[in-house]
Design goal:
alpha/beta; Rossmann fold; N-(1-d-carboxylethyl)-l-norvaline Dehydrogenase, domain 2; 14 helices; globular; binds nicotinamide-adenine-dinucleotide
Amino acid sequence: MRKIKTLGLLGTGVIGGGWAARALHCGIDVVAADLNPAMEEWIRGAVENASPSLDALTADVPTPAKGTLRFTTDAEEMASTADFIQESVPEDLAIKRKVYTAISATAPADVIISSSTSGFMPTEMQKGMTHPERMLVGHPFNPVYLCPLVEVVGGVQTSDDNKIAAKAFYESIGMHALMVRKEVPGHISDRLQEAMWREMLHALNDGIATTGELDESIVYGPGLRWAVMGMNQIYMIAGGKGGARHFIEQFGPALEWPWTHLKAPELNDKIIDGFVDGTTEQANGRSVRELERIRDECLVAIQRVLKKHDIASGSTLNLFEASLKSRAESNN
Ligand SMILES: NC(=O)c1ccc[n+]([C@@H]2O[C@H](COP(=O)([O-])OP(=O)(O)OC[C@H]3O[C@@H](n4cnc5c(N)ncnc54)[C@H](O)[C@@H]3O)[C@@H](O)[C@H]2O)c1
């Protein structure tokens, strides 16, 4: 596998900025390409903003000297210098296909090209590119610099070696690579999130709850548990001494009751305004930047607690710190 000294980014918005911050923190240089030159200022600000949280997350171990960030509007120049390319252009299949055709003709054959796509399948994107066996999906979660999950998905033409190499790279920058067995639209986690969001929009439309009340129904209950254990393990525990079998016998039949709508509601002004006005009211005058800071401080604190129990994202943090420590020792 090619040693990843330079990460190439294509698209430097919310997600590209998050990838840059994570890689730079691990001592990897970043070449960031975006067709909009104004994004240079934005990505530099995003990296600066993320830096204190990353330092706090890995405060217990020495970290390498930060990598350097270079910005370009020339995607092909980026593709000719990167050891691994992470694409984060807008969620539009035509745009994604077009950029793959261009950058894959320039990037050396052993450079992996990974897409941050939230829902497209790699088979749909790799058609027509040069060396499609090195194209895959590496779907992260926002903020990329603090959420360790990355869903790794291969298409029909992706080689197993490239999937394994991508996993190794993501792990080296502190991530938890979930190897998705079968490509489906929306991968795994977004399918689950969307099912819940669909139900929330129905609840809003049906006047059952406001956005604030819907969020209360998550953060004071199930959301608190989900950072520690996923829904399946939590439900097994909820079955008491009868465990998972007792739980599914007791609550399984409710799946047939009319608790959920499943089909998406038709988006109307009531839903859109309810969502926008409700979340603005919840923000209570705080800007997105302020909310981001609160979110990030809490995400760091939660992971540092989970680390003590070596569970969930705390286990990933332990592995990340061990690798940063051994890198620091080998540099001494
Ligand atoms: N926002 C999220 O929460 C989230 C989470 C996970 C994955 N994703 C995925 O990441 C990708 C990017 O999402 P985002 O939220 O960062 O979008 P964004 O709109 O914030 O950023 C997209 C960037 O791509 C640039 N761009 C557009 N066309 C380009 C081209 N041809 N070449 C180079 N740059 C180009 C734009 O100028 C912009 O800066 C999408 O595929 C999305 O589904 C988003």
